[in-house]
Design goal:
26% strand, 6 helices, six-stranded antiparallel β-sheet, alpha+beta, 25% helix, two-stranded antiparallel ribbon
């Protein structure tokens, strides 16, 4: 955590980012967390996990502005406001696939290629365009960071509802518009 604070948060001016179990989750502007109340379509408020960090999967608490700085650095080959945070070659290695992670769900749609995984990133072709991203869920929250590196675009989607398909529907819709493609009705597909 100290390394991430010193080497990532500080140089990227991520001043409102921290870790689970810290006071950051007790700020008044922290969103109320929600979960589905199965089998209905209702949702219910849930408390924010207050334990110690559970590791990389859900351990960081942040906001759209701070994560946008992270995305900017990713799209600028490791630089943020002219300062090198990561060497371009090192960052490029994290965007390279190391294994295929295809599931039957991915193969169901012609718009999606075989998903792969790199160093912390899911790498895929979306309608023929490289997409690098990662999503995560924690009780009451869903987060998605996606890059369209060749188009020079990135997106951060944060939802205060755990395990939500909304993130996926929204980022595919945004990608269609950024890439100038006829939008696919992902909402109907995910019902």
């Amino acid at each position: 955590e100290d390394f991430i604070r010193q080497e990532i948060f500080m140089p990227l001016e991520m001043t409102n980012s921290g870790f689970l179990g810290e006071k950051i989750t007790q700020k008044p502007e922290m969103a109320q967390a929600y979960m589905d109340l199965f089998p209905t379509d209702d949702i219910m408020p849930v408390s924010i996990y207050q334990g110690n960090s559970i590791g990389p999967e859900g351990g960081i608490v942040s906001n759209v502005l701070d994560l946008s700085n992270w995305v900017t650095m990713q799209l600028n080959q490791g630089k943020y406001k002219g300062k090198e945070i990561f060497q371009a070659s090192t960052l490029a290695e994290t965007h390279k696939p190391s294994n295929i992670t295809a599931t039957s769900a991915h193969l169901e749609y012609d718009e999606l290629g075989y998903p792969m995984y790199g160093m912390g990133w899911r790498i895929n072709l979306y309608r023929g365009h490289l997409m690098v991203g990662h999503n995560g869920n924690l009780k009451g929250f869903s987060a998605t960071v996606n890059l369209l590196p060749k188009a020079g675009w990135g997106m951060v989607i944060l939802v205060n509802k755990g395990y939500s398909d909304f993130n996926t529907i929204l980022y595919y819709n945004i990608a269609d518009r950024i890439l100038g493609l006829k939008p696919v009705d992902w909402h109907s597909r995910f019902k």
